[in-house]
Amino acid sequence: MSDAEWQVIKPLMPWPAWLYGNGGRPEKYCRRRIMDAIRYVVDFSELPRISGSVRTCVV
């Protein structure tokens, strides 16, 4: 994810409750890395529909 894309997505994400003193523990993983992983899974799931069988896809 580019810095420009992250600047668009970042304000749309909810703030963690622990920042407001509402309990919970600090995040274990960076939110940007989580969004990168979600985008990877979504992009990869589109490959078979776009290019045919998963077996024919070269990643």
Write the layout of secondary structure elements.
Layout: H1 3-9, H2 31-51
What report would you give on this structure?
It is a single chain. The chain is elongated. The mean pLDDT is 75. The chain has helices at residues 3-9, 31-51. With 59 residues, it is an all-alpha fold. The two termini are 18 Å apart. The longest helix has 21 residues, at 31-51.
Note the main attributes of this structure.
single chain, 59 residues, mainly alpha, 2 helices, elongated
Number of helices: 2
The total domain count is: 1
Number of strands: 0
Measured between the Cα atoms of the first and last residue, the distance is 18 Å
Cα radius of gyration in angstroms: 16 Å
Low-confidence stretches: none
- Sheet bearing the most strands, described? none
Report the order of strands and helices: HH
User: Helix/strand/pairing class, anyone?
Assistant: mainly alpha
Average pLDDT metric: 75
Percentage beta strand: under 5%
**Percentage of residues assigned to helices:** 40-55%
Which overall shape is indicated by the principal axes computed on the Cα atoms? elongated
